Amino acid sequence: MKQIRQVGLWGDSVMRGVVWNSESQKYKYATVNAAEEASKNLGISLENHAKMGCTATKGFHLLQRSFEKESAYPQAALIEFGGNDCDFDWAAISDAPEAEHLPKNPLPKFEAEMRLMIRFLRERGVMPLLTTLVPNHAERYFDFITRTGLSKENILFWLGDVQHIYRWHERYNLLVEKLAREEKCPILGLRDAFLSQWHYEDYLCEDGIHPNEKGYYLLQEVISSEGKRLLQF
Fold first, then answer.
1. What is the C-alpha separation between 223 and 227, in angstroms, rounded?
2. In angstroms, rounded to a whole number, what is the distance separating the alpha carbons of residues 126 and 159?
3. What CATH number is attached to the domain comprising 54?
4. Kind and range of the H or E element at 66?
């Protein structure tokens, strides 16, 4: 069995270690980057290409460009997307709650882009490794997106109920799990690490979507522990 030592990472702000600072009302980096600290624990080399706000579509472009520039490919690629893909233009919804609104990447497009990434990697001899999505907290996120004056009434009218935010996000997570089964990809269970906590919201920022410092330590633990099992073939 061959131990994997070189891993590339493509994802969004969670894999960049972004947290919301309630005092400054701005995003900043956490004191620990979960993926990078876990790579040290595992004794692997990690190239982190994750970017804040990145969707699967943008991530695939970044992945392709990285492979064009690099002289040698990593042995494995960790792929973490979905949190931005499922998001909406909340200002547009606030202005026109009776209109149709699509997410940044509708589910069929998200599935297609993720599947393309998986097959792109395999064609080049790189093992794709997926992750489940860190869960959001619907009430916190609803309060966060409406904090600067968007109409709570209009957005709630369009949603139907606040928990629709969580359920919609869950559909993208379920799709990642489906892809892992169909494409026979290893998958890191980030979501369960949070949901297994009695109060998982204690591990999330005020924005309801990013882990807080405590949450990133939890991510570091799960990536380290599951990585020992998954990064070999």
1. 5
2. 40
3. 3.40.50.1110
4. helix 56-69
